[in-house]
Each structure stands twice: as C-alpha cells, then as structure tokens.
Write a structure and sequence with these properties.
About 10% of the residues lie in helices and about 60% in strands. It folds into 2 domains: about 90 residues, Quinohemoprotein amine dehydrogenase alpha subunit, domain 2 (Lipocalin), CATH 2.40.128; about 90 residues, Beta Barrel (Lipocalin), CATH 2.40.128. β10 and β11 form a beta hairpin. About 20% of the residues are buried. The chain is mostly beta strands and about 230 residues long. It is built from 1 helix and 18 strands. The strands form 2 sheets. Strands 4-3-2-1-9-8-7-6-5 form a 9-stranded antiparallel sheet, with no helix packed on it. The chain has a 9-stranded antiparallel sheet with strand order 13-12-11-10-18-17-16-15-14, with no helix packed on it.
C-alpha cells in the first residue's frame, strides 16, 4: 500500500508539472533588437472565458497596453498578432513554462525571446534637485518640417533621470534610457529610438547647445530652459 501511495504522489507531481508547462498566462519580458535600436517589451497574458487575451507594453517607446489579437497556445506553439502595428509573433513555450523562444515579424523577422517577469521597478526616490532639474525645450529642423521636443530632467537618489515629450506627435513621457552629466557636458541615450543627444550646458544654466543623432543623421538641437 505504501508503494502504491508513492506512485500516486509521483503521478500527481507530474500532472502538476504538465499543467504548469502548458500555462502561458502571466507577465513576460523580452528585448527586441532591431539594428541599433533596443526595445524592452512586456507581454501580459490572461485567461478569459473565451480563451487567452494579452496586451503588450513597449517600455522604451512609452506605449502601454497595446492590444493584441489571435492569442493562442496550441501545445507548445504560442502566437499572437498586433494589428495596430501590423506585427505578429510566433514562439515555442519551454517544457517548464519559464520561457518562450520565437520570432517577431513586422516587415522583417527578428528574434524575440520572452522570460517570465517584468522590467518595471519601483520609481527611484527624488534626490536633492540639481541645477538642471526641470523642463528643457528645443526644436529639431527636419527639412521642410520641424519637431518640438521637451525634456524633463529630474535628479533622484540613483542619479539623473529624464523623459521626453513630443507634442507634435502626441507623445508624452517617453523614457530616456540613460542621462550622463560630466561638468558642462550632458548626454541622453535613447535605446528605443536608436538615438542620442550630446550637448554643452551654458554657464548661465539657461541653454544647452548640442546635437541630436539618430540612424546616422546628426541634427543641431538647442535646448532652452522652460521657466515654471
């Protein structure tokens, strides 16, 4: 009888493992590398009465809650589409249900693997304001067009951080990957847009004169402090 109970326990464990392996619900994170650009993506999969649903966040583009369609898990084959950007994903769920290896297709196929979890972390606590904290506005001249950009700089206990608004495109709160300051030199890195900004802070702390670079294009950009 004792041996029989041991076998029953083993079968129950195996059944529990199989159920977990086939469960794709939960939070997933992955990084899509498209040339010099790197996009951190989060996928949030949920079970509903009619099957699976999901939304996707593009952290470095400030796009949250992007709707998906056709979310399905057939055996280990997992797929979904994002009609909003004409993209699709096909992957294979690992045996232990901890990762998905697959391909994102949006004009061209790109490798995209997911693992369970999210990129989001607690917001750093504000630190003592630096002498460049606040909003800085500038205009990119793009031939016959122009594009206004507003950077918001905030010092925290972990160092300088920043976000960007692009009013002409309705974009607000675009994350800046890294902010580096060395004396009068200021640099922004935006991995999601494969872009950088290198500038020099004026002695009066009212302007930053520099260059916005993206995909081999260098464009002069002067930032002016926006007074409260």
């Amino acid at each position: 009888m004792k041996r029989k109970l041991q076998w029953i326990g083993a079968v129950a464990l195996l059944q529990g493992f199989a159920l977990y392996a086939q469960d794709v619900a939960g939070d997933w994170r992955g990084t899509l590398k498209a040339g010099p650009a790197e996009l951190r993506l989060e996928l949030h999969v949920a079970k509903g009465g009619g099957g699976l649903t999901a939304t996707m966040d593009s952290i470095d583009q400030g796009a949250i809650g992007i709707p998906t369609e056709g979310v399905a898990l057939d055996g280990k084959a997992f797929k979904f589409t994002v009609n909003k950007v004409q993209g699709s994903y096909e992957g294979v769920l690992s045996a232990d249900g901890s990762s998905i290896k697959g391909t994102w297709t949006q004009g061209q196929p790109l490798a995209l693997d997911f693992e369970r979890g999210t990129f989001k972390k607690a917001e750093p606590k504000p630190g003592k304001p630096s002498d460049i904290d606040g909003a800085w506005s500038g205009t990119l001249s793009l031939g016959e067009k122009s594009l206004k950009i507003v950077y918001h700089i905030l010092n925290t206990e972990e160092g300088l951080t920043a976000t960007a608004d692009i009013p002409d495109q309705g974009v607000k709160g675009l994350p800046i990957t890294t902010v580096t300051r060395n004396g009068a030199t200021l640099k922004f890195e935006m991995k999601g847009q494969a872009a950088t900004y290198d500038g020099k802070i004026a002695a009066d702390l009212n302007t930053v004169t520099g260059t916005f670079s993206q995909m081999g294009n260098d464009i002069p950009l002067v930032l002016t402090r926006v007074k409260p």
